[in-house]
Amino acid sequence: MTTQTAETSLPPRRLWRSTAAVILGFFTCAILSLGTDQILHLLKVYPPWGEPMWDPGLNALALAYRCVYTVVAGYLTARLAPRNPMCHVWVLAFIGLLMAVAGVIATSGLALGPRWYPIALAVTSVPFVWLGGVLHSMGAKD
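The chain above was modelled as a monomer; its predicted structure follows.
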């Protein structure tokens, strides 16, 4: 007589795929953002690295493409998730929020640019990651 036990944890392969989905989403957003920053610095749209950027239009530009990349990150995370894509999206959103709040704290008191910019990054992080997950779920086949 054999007894069957219910498996309550993810098999190791799914755990690694889940972790990879979130990490790839995070690094996709970071690499796209920093890559675009670098291009705009090279084109002299932005001031040289290390100099403050006070122009509200340039900060709005940076916020705009970061929001787009955040949606892409949420979509990618949902797409790569082995199951429960929105759960993975929420994990990414929480990590992004923590990193953005850390950025607000770390730049507090530094004259790097307008104060609203890092705060806006923190405020927009969760809704735009979520939007990426929703866009994936709208296109996903059941």
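The chain is about 75% helix and 0% strand.
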